[in-house]
Design goal:
The chain has about 475 residues and is α/β, with parallel strands linked by helices. The protein is built from nine helices and 29 strands. Strands 18, 21, 22, 23, 24 and 29 form a six-stranded parallel beta sheet that branches. Strands 3, 4, 6, 7 and 8 form a five-stranded antiparallel beta sheet that branches. Strands 11, 12, 14, 15 and 16 form a five-stranded antiparallel beta sheet that branches.
Length: about 475
């Protein structure tokens, strides 16, 4: 009996050790130096990331302020005020999850500073640009800590109605009657104090140039030989010769393939784009990309963007021989590194472990009913951290973008994933992303919550590419 009990305890210990999340931080100290809060903590061997939050007396919850690498154990917080008390919370993120938190508080001496509540200045509309046949973009000169109320009327002195309130100085006004040259006015609001309405500006005022980037979505590439070998032809697969025809059509019609990074750089005011850019995206990371699509991209000197499902690539890498028995085999990290190093294929994220049609009430990387920014942001940051670690380990890159699994998304999920670290998100063929199938941009607007989410069309088999692209 004693031997059985001892064996049981040993098994329990081993099970507990496997997959055990990191221990809570052992030390968290906060001190004041030169008007700033200096936060320091003890090094943990389990830490891949340290995550720091702050809460003031008037805050209802903690606010995320800092992520550091496993070697960085200090942070200086300059955004503190005299007479206030702040509580800091530290979590350790390791391979198996997030630790319990450790808290520490700091009271800042001195007389409490009561900010003077000043009304925002009257906004100035920079431009009203017709972007495409459905959308006009209204841009306002930004002010600090303001929200913006956008109003619209059919005539300069007409009855202006509120369109929306936004925390960014941009309105993408969609579904509007283009037979009317609408007029716009904007009000800024800060701490409940409203500015005067801006001067009215008509559609076309100081209009900027726009450019379009169509995005195609592929998944798997097969041949008759692959089908004879047991590879499945699912609803999103195309034959390799169809993909080659697509590349030939793009070349003939003057399109040049670009990467996500090229688009981001251009919108950030750097570099140039070709006259007719197009983005080829490929989801999942199936073996057919390596075997069938990559040779064709090299042949035609074109580029593609491949979004990877982290856990599927990990599984294929761990047991590559098992692919011969699978009807949907995936690439290994070694094969992906080979393609990434070639320059023809840019690697982005398809999430690390969110690619499930139904999990915890969610579909893919979208939110579920009841999600808040705080609850979903923690999920997004953990997944981003995990797949970024894999990218840095195997590909020596960092994913700048994510493609939504199943194309399911919400505005809340967009904001959370962008806050987590991605600069751009690829959605699906839905009008709630963008009205036009081609993604239109204004370079002066750069990347914002609207422009950073791209619409893309799923290329299906059996029809010519012109069925899937506006040109």
């Amino acid at each position: 009996m004693k031997r059985f009990t001892a064996l049981l305890l040993l098994v329990c210990c081993l099970l507990t050790a496997c997959g055990q999340r990191p221990a809570a931080p052992e030390k968290l100290s906060v001190s004041l130096a030169d008007g700033a809060a200096v936060i320091q903590w003890a090094q943990s061997a389990e830490a891949e990331t340290y995550r720091l939050y702050r809460r003031g007396l008037k805050d209802t919850d903690y606010k995320f302020i800092f992520d550091s690498g496993g070697d960085e154990i200090t942070y200086t917080d300059h955004f503190i005020h005299s007479g206030e008390t702040y509580t800091y919370k530290l979590e350790i993120i390791g391979k198996n999850g997030i630790s319990d938190a450790l808290e520490s508080s700091l009271s800042v001496p001195g007389e409490k500073i009561v900010p003077v509540r000043k009304a925002p200045v009257t906004p100035v509309i920079d431009y009203v640009t017709p972007m495409d046949v459905y959308t006009a973009v209204v841009a306002v000169r930004p002010q600090e800590n303001c929200t913006y109320e956008f109003y619209r009327a059919a005539s300069e002195n007409g009855d202006y109605s509120l369109v929306t309130t936004r925390d960014e100085p941009f309105l993408y006004d969609e579904h509007i009657d283009k037979s009317i040259n609408w007029y716009y006015r904007v009000r800024a609001v800060r701490d409940g104090i409203e500015s005067e309405l801006s001067a009215p500006q008509k559609t076309g005022y100081n209009a900027k140039s726009t450019f379009g980037v169509p995005v195609l979505m592929y998944h798997e590439f097969v041949t008759k030989e692959d089908l004879n070998d047991g590879i499945a032809f699912d609803e999103y697969a195309v034959y390799a010769d169809e993909f080659e025809s697509d590349l030939q059509w793009m070349q003939k019609n003057g399109y040049t393939t670009i990467t996500t990074n090229q688009l981001i750089e251009y919108l950030n005011g750097k570099g140039k784009l070709p006259e007719k850019p197009i983005i080829i995206t490929i989801d999942d990371g199936k073996y057919g990309v390596y075997k069938r699509a990559w040779p064709l991209l090299k042949k035609y000197k074109m580029k593609a963007v491949l979004s990877l499902i982290g856990y599927e690539i990990d599984s294929a890498t761990t047991a590559p021989d098992a692919r011969s028995k699978s009807d949907a085999p995936y690439c290994t990290w070694q094969e992906l590194a080979e393609m990434s190093d070639s320059g023809e294929i840019e690697m982005i994220s398809h999430t690390d472990k969110q690619h499930y049609f139904s999990h915890d009430g969610r579909c893919g990387a979208s939110t579920k009913d009841g999600d808040t920014m705080a609850t979903f942001l923690a999920i997004a940051q953990k997944d981003y951290s995990d797949i970024t670690r894999s990218f840095r380990t195997h590909l020596h890159t960092t994913p700048v973008a994510m493609a939504y699994p199943y194309s399911e998304r919400t505005e809340l999920s967009d904001e959370a994933w962008l806050q987590s670290g991605y600069k751009l998100l690829y959605g699906g063929n839905y009008e709630n992303i963008r009205i036009s199938r081609t993604n239109y941009f204004i370079r002066e607007a750069g990347l914002n919550k609207k422009s950073a989410v791209l619409r893309r069309v799923a290329r299906m088999t059996g029809r010519d590419i012109t069925s899937w692209i506006d040109y």
